[in-house]
Amino acid sequence: MTHFADIADHLEGQAIELPSWAFGNSGTRFKVFGTPGTPRSVEEKIADAATVHRFTGLAPTVALHIPWDRVDDYAALRRYAEDHGVALGTINSNTFQDDDYKFGGLTHTDPRIRQKAIDHHVECIDVMDQTGSRDLKIWLADGSNYPGQADLRGRQDRLAESLATIYDRIGEEQRLVLEYKFFEPAFYHTDVPDWGTSYAQVSALGERAVVCLDTGHHAPGTNIEFIVMQLLRLGKLGSFDFNSRFYGDDDLIVGSADPFQLFRILFEVIRGGGYGPANPDGHSDVAFMLDQCHNVEDKIPGQIRSVLNVQEMTARALLVDRDALDAAQTAGDVLGAHEIFMDAFSTDVRPDLAAWREERGLPGNPMRAYAESGYQAAIEAARAGGSQLSWT
Questions:
Q1: Which of 18, 202, 208, 336 sits a CA distance of 20 to 30 A from 168?
Q2: In 3D, which of 167, 212, 225, 252 has the Cα closest to residue 345?
Q3: CA 110: distance to chain centroid?
């Protein structure tokens, strides 16, 4: 039986990147809801993200989205983040909010529009050079809505050519991360609908091209932990976008829909060598990131709850007695192996995690500490009447 004391050191250094857009106004397909205290600038989004890190110690970096977070001086923005105790992380591109991209960006039949989309990614790489970011994450809305509308193979060929051009521009210490999504906004076919397509495309590029797995971007019933295992086995799992699939899309608090699924995913990450602090195999870390929108709840508490959910399920996954599990699996002991797995999942690690945080000068209960801090009331007063920053 593995105990919390046995895995406590493995929790050191866990990092869960926050998305800047999680702090902006967002909504359903029908309405964007305004929330008091919502940031009016990228600097205020970074300040809110830094607040999550201050209360949890789990979120040392903030992902940016271009053009939503475009500024004139990225070096100054980098210094601003560092002054607040965080760093700038993944740079996310956007080729889905421009009229030219109605029928695709990197896959478009028009060379001018493809070049425009490529140039946008070059701009994102320029931003990375100034912010010190490692990863360029690409999610494409490209696809079609009717059979016969598009040449499916031709679009894959154009995508491969466009990605190769972008990949040639990234630096030696940078990565291209290709995200997949099985539907929306193109519903007949999506150009990068699954992990296999993403894997095929990035494998053709080189070692510094990897797959991003968004936990909400799968059909209901998909065995996501199997995909995690396979991508780790192939050396191509670069990052996660954590969330829960309550909407037809994703974007709600990770672990809220199915905490057991999150546990199973994190077990495979640890078993496959993708979790650095607990990594027995010497493999590279997999980047953990949230991709969520908080539509009816306050933004900062929503992010605090999210990173705590990931930390809790990581701790439970670390508690799995791997030696005993391996022995039971080898012996064909079906129920014995399942019991070992479920014992770890059923362990309440919250008191141990609270004590672990307090030993490190963090609040034992970050949610309560934030509620009592007065920060929410302060930003609501300071930001009243401003033009609040949104993804729309």
A1: 18
A2: 225
A3: 31
CB 355 within 8 A of CB 315: no
CA-CA distance, 50 to 62, in Å (whole number)?
8
pTM: 0.95
**Residue (of 256, 260, 253, 179) closest to 218 by Cα position:** 179
Residue 217: C-alpha distances to residues 36, 196, 233, 234 (Å): 30, 13, 21, 20
Q: What is the pLDDT along the chain (392 residues), one digit of tens a residue?
A: 789 999 999 999 899 999 999 998 877 777 788 888 999 999 999 999 999 999 999 999 999 999 999 999 999 999 999 999 999 999 999 999 999 999 999 999 999 999 999 999 999 999 999 999 999 999 999 999 999 999 999 999 999 999 999 999 999 999 999 999 998 899 999 999 999 999 999 999 999 999 999 999 999 899 999 999 999 999 999 999 999 987 667 689 999 989 999 999 999 999 999 997 444 444 457 999 999 988 888 999 999 999 999 999 999 999 999 999 999 999 999 999 999 999 999 999 999 999 999 999 999 999 999 999 999 999 999 998 666 665 55
Count, residues in the chain: 392
Residue 151 structure tokens: 């040449």
CA-only gyration radius of the chain, Å? 21
Structure token pair of residue 377 = 């009331």
Separation of alpha carbons 91 and 257, rounded Å: 28
34 phi/psi in degrees, rounded to 5: -80, 145
| Contact assessment for residue 97 and residue 142, using Cβ atoms and an 8 Å cutoff | no
Q: What is the spatial distance between Cα 134 and Cα 289, in angstroms, rounded to a whole number? A: 13
Q: Tell me which amino acid residue 337 is.
A: A
Give dist(CA 14, CA 41) in Å, integer. Answer: 28
Distances (CA, A) of 168 to 122, 128, 173: 10, 15, 13
Alpha helices in 242-298 (DSSP H): 259-271
Amino acid at 80: Y
Q: Where are the beta strands (DSSP E) in 182-295?
A: 189-190, 209-214, 237-241, 288-289
Task: Compute CA 51 distance to the chain's CA centroid, rounded to the nearest angstrom.
Answer: 19
